[in-house]
Design goal:
- 2 copies of one chain form a homodimer.
- The first copy, chain A, has 143 residues and is α+β, with helices and mostly antiparallel strands.
- Chain A has 7 helices and 6 strands, in the order ββααβααββααβα.
- Chain A has a 3-stranded antiparallel beta sheet.
- In chain A, a hairpin with a 2-residue loop joins strand 1 and strand 2.
- Strand 6 of chain A pairs antiparallel with strand 1 of chain B, so a sheet runs across the interface.
């Protein structure tokens, strides 16, 4: 436990009465949901983390796995995730330098939640979606 | 299953090779994570849904429960959630009209995932955060 942290009683953990707030790493949050979304909110973070859940990834590998993300946006997401202690990177002194990103132990604590998020999307896709070859997508859009 | 949907084989559900894409409600997605985040991504949706998980809520109740959200932003989030079939509303012909928002059956399918997201934030708060009276927050920030 960090210095200054107090042991919290279970009954305080959902703060629906708004008379209490959470202070975490110097920031204020109004509920547990708010805390989690600080770490994984935004359009891309969950997707980036998803592809790192099993193994380290290089920047170029992530870019290839997430075709719709721009390099700038991917770089920004990785910087945020590093700042928050979720992702770390190892730089190999090669020419050109090789950089690998991987989840910290703290980052790995997100995996069960990420699996639950992916599971919901998979279930919906199975029920209502279809999977097509990416080459045929233009045809699909116009049909 | 919707017309045109196909039965998907399990092996296709995580689309890491990028040769397949998901088509769902006329939109393209690159993985299951991407699908879920379309529905719950953004700063506020999970928080709004969290407060509706057990019971219907009026706009003013949600506003009170989420002090940091603006009325415009709350209205926007509710419109998105309605458009996506997650939330519906009932208007009572009173003066002034009473409007109640509640989860659809589809929206209720999100609850286990929302609980997992909140659980992670609760766990982190218990480990590293502290809960203080909201009246004392200025003091806390400066200490």
């Amino acid at each position: 436990m960090l210095p200054g942290a107090i042991q919290l009683k279970k009954k305080f953990m959902v703060i629906d009465n708004k008379e209490k707030i959470i202070i975490l790493n110097g920031q204020e949050f109004h509920c547990a949901m708010d805390v989690t979304m600080h770490y994984i909110g935004g359009k891309w973070k969950t997707v980036v983390l998803w592809y790192m859940r099993k193994d380290k990834k290089r920047f170029s590998e992530l870019k290839k796995l997430i075709p719709n993300i721009t390099e700038k946006m991917l770089s920004l997401q990785l910087k945020d995730l590093e700042r928050d202690g979720i992702v770390t990177r190892k730089v190999y002194p090669e020419v050109p330098p090789r950089v690998e990103y991987f989840l910290t132990d703290f980052g790995k604590s997100l995996i069960p939640m990420l699996e639950e998020i992916a599971r919901w999307g998979r279930h919906l896709t199975e029920k209502k979606g279809k999977i097509v070859d990416s080459q045929t997508k233009k045809k699909t859009k116009n049909s």
